[in-house]
Design brief:
Layout: E1 4-8, H1 13-24, E2 30-33, H2 41-47, E3 56-59, E4 62-65, H3 67-75, H4 79-84
Parallel strand pairs: 1-2
Antiparallel strand pairs: 1-3, 3-4
Helix pairs in contact: 1-3
């Protein structure tokens, strides 16, 4: 199973929705709250190709994008394969 990292902020409803979907899929993920760990924000921006919004989601080495991108992958039936890789 691929490792999953999600960069978040505690008050972000999109972050909560993305974490909810991953939890419903039964996968473990590493959450990095960029408010609690502001030194990680620059890492997120670099890995995400300049994106500064949260959430930013990574499955393995692949940058998935944000919450809408995660749900779009699920709607297309492509999320399961990424999670199992």
């Amino acid at each position: 199973m691929s490792s999953i990292t999600i960069y978040t902020k505690s008050w972000c409803p999109y972050c909560a929705a993305a974490k909810k979907l991953l939890t419903e899929k039964g996968v473990d993920f590493t959450e990095i709250d960029i408010e609690a760990k502001p030194d990680q924000r620059q890492d997120m921006i670099q890995k995400a190709g300049g994106r500064t919004t949260v959430p930013q989601i990574f499955i393995g080495d692949r940058h998935v994008g944000g919450c809408d991108d995660l749900y779009a992958l699920d709607d297309k039936g492509q999320l399961e394969a990424l999670l199992q890789a």
